[in-house]
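Running this now, will post back.
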Amino acid sequence: MVMVSNSDYSKIPAGRDFNNLPADSGTGTTVGYLYDGLTEEDRFVQKVLREHYDKMYRENMSHSDPMAYVRSKYCDVTSPNFCSYMTADQRSIAYRTEKECCRQEENL
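Update: finished.
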């Protein structure tokens, strides 16, 4: 994996290792490769997250006011739905993600 160097972000993987590309990867592409930069572990994590948020989406949409339900789960410590077992960072990530899913539903 290629690492970004000469910056404060030196420990962040660049995501694409051009040394591992097939020799004919430039054929028929506009950027010169088809490599997506994802490992099997990355794909597994994506699958697990997609399944989890699909389930959460269905649960949220089963309530009369999905946004209020999402807010109560992650922001209202007095709510019986509050996810106290999660850290503040986990609740923040889940709140933003589920809120965006609700917004996309509203725009359909």
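The two ends are 39 Å apart (CA to CA). More later if anyone needs it.
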